[in-house]
Amino acid sequence: MNKKSLKLIYNNSLVGPSIFFALLFCIPLVGSNYTLAILTMIGFYALVCIGLTMLTGYAGQISLGHAAFYGIGAYTSAYMTATLGLSPWLAILVGAFISALVALLIGIPTFKLKGYYLALATLGFGIIVYTAFKELTSITGGSNGFFGIPAIQLFGFEFVTDQSFFYLIWLFVFIALIFSRNIIHSRIGRGLRSIEGSEIAADAVGVNLMKYKLQIFVISAIFTSISGSLLAHYVSFINPTLFTANTSIYLLIMVIIGGVNNIWGAIVGSATYVLLGELLKHFVPVFFPNIGGEFEIVFFGLLLVLTLIYMPNGLVPQFMKIAGKFQKKERPAPIAFTIDTQATGGEVND
Amino acid sequence: MTNKELILSVENLTKVFGGVIAVDNVSFTINKGEIFAVIGPNGAGKTTLFNMITGVLPSSSGNVYFQGKRLTRKKPYQIAQAGVTRTFQNLEVFDNMTVIENVMTGAHITMKTNILTAGLRLPTVVKEEVYTMEKALQCLKDVGIAEFAYEMADKLPYGSQRLLEIARAAISNPQLILLDEPMAGLNAEESRQLVEVILKMRAKGMTFLFVEHDMETVMSISDRLVVVDNGVKIGEGTPEEIYKNPKVVAAYLGDDEAEEGVVYA
């Protein structure tokens, strides 16, 4: 038995993701700047949603405060680069470290309790962090926002154009996707999924439930923080309203619409959210000229409810169903162990 | 058993639910390589006893020692790490995984991969995965359900799911496997298969403690057993001794069944 036999259990192939990303990376050759800006925005959300999908789908926990980690990353980067003049890469690392530390501080007490206490704890935490962004005016610039965040650089190259940033963010998404998939297809992933399969049996085979929930929460906080850091460099101006509880809820909606049982759901969900959001922005004012800005939350709230009723596993299984109609699914042939297992029968009770 | 090596000792274990004493001062010891059974009528406290040993329920007083280490007040996952695994009366397979993944999850405590090495998929991780997969296939082969390895676990027939639980409990090379009513819900053929698996594993040195209803199985495969009634231990010994114990006969077997039972023994 060798490496290849693992394929019977897990699809660890890099072919699928490589094709997807190769096609995606061709888009700048044909797409307009508008298209690239949209795709870059999807990339920011996708990076957050990959971590959040693992947390929701595999660790079975709901977070209503990921906007806070998004903000911690963004403001850490902003402060360290614009105010202190330090390297943006160092700032990304520091932001990720702070987010990880904060996730530990929230996670340790809440994961001792069963149930959805994380949702409550993160909701409260998100509001506290939002208030801090607004009130710590000497560091964050308060409600006026933080201006003049420098572009991110690598070996003298400045990521200023939409095109260069598109590649940068999606490279991060690619790495996060493979990293997360590797976790899911391993001892850790089995441990996490076993909790959903049967918590009592997971306990009995020695899976330390709290430890893995906590680790996934920390990883998702790190991904979110990195995404926030990159966002700060991309838009060069941030203000607290980007990181409200509403943002946390939108992130959760993306994850659920995409589907929490598959890591690709993160990309599908964030793409759906951004594209629908753009459509709404264009068409709703055409039909309802006097409408206020809050129609989005109503629309996406409704979409969430409909998703949960009609496709609780999100869009990805629907895509796979459609794809399955076009290709015959390959199933591993049953292995030839049956013959010798029968050989010892019949000597005991007779 | 010529070479008696103590593996588990239950000392004065007691559980009080409100005013009800569910298990009252029960003690017994199990030696390495034994098949040891706990029997008793419905509501005798067998399951409570079992749950205290596996850490699902905290005991009111008394202790459980496993190879000299105290298990009392340990969490279930720590008990697994100490080398005691179990199966469940009402099947608890991981129904969101394939059969082989179920068994590989059983090897959780023997593996070293952590979240970082897993994410980076270092060569050591791949090596460990391959090794565990091989071992899982061997365990499935040992219980005779290797042909279902890549099926979803919840698609298996009931009896095979129980065998799967045994494979899952065995892959981590535990010192002791606890079986909670392993024969419950099985037909005659499935029971026969299960008994065969248990005896085969015992021949390789595994120790079993099981709680069971099915008298025929208990008497045919266990080396020693204790009988509990109303939470109190009323008898202990080999199956033959149990049949001759007047207390046990009165409380549990009844006169007719006792005579029938002698034939089996």
How does this model look, in words?
The complex is a heterodimer of chains A (350) and B (265). By secondary structure, chain A is mostly helical. Chain A has a domain at 30-248. Chain A is 70% helix and 2% strand. Chain A has 15 helices and two strands. Chain A has a two-stranded antiparallel ribbon. Residues 257-265 of chain B have low confidence and may be disordered. In chain B, helix 3 packs across helix 5 (123-143), helix 5 packs across helix 6 (158-170) and helix 6 (158-170) runs parallel beside helix 7. In chain B, a hairpin with a 2-residue loop joins strand 1 and strand 2 (20-31). The radius of gyration of chain B is 19 Å and the shape is globular. The longest helix of chain B has 21 residues, at 123-143. Chain B has a six-stranded mixed β-sheet with strand order 6-7-8-3-9-10, with helices on both faces. In chain B, strands 2-1-4-5 form a four-stranded antiparallel β-sheet, with helices on one face. Chain B is α/β, with parallel strands linked by helices. Helix content of chain B is 42%, strand content 23%. Chain B has helices at 46-53, 76-82, 99-106, 115-120, 123-143, 158-170, 188-203, 215-221, 239-244, 246-264; strands at residues 6-17, 20-31, 35-39, 61-66, 69-70, 84-86, 176-180, 207-211, 224-229, 232-237. Chain B folds into two domains: 1-83 and 174-265, 3-Layer(aba) Sandwich (Rossmann fold); 94-172, no CATH class. Chain B is built from ten helices and ten strands. Chains A and B meet through helix 7, helix 8, helix 9, helix 10 and helix 15 of A and helix 2, helix 3, helix 4, helix 5 and helix 6 of B.
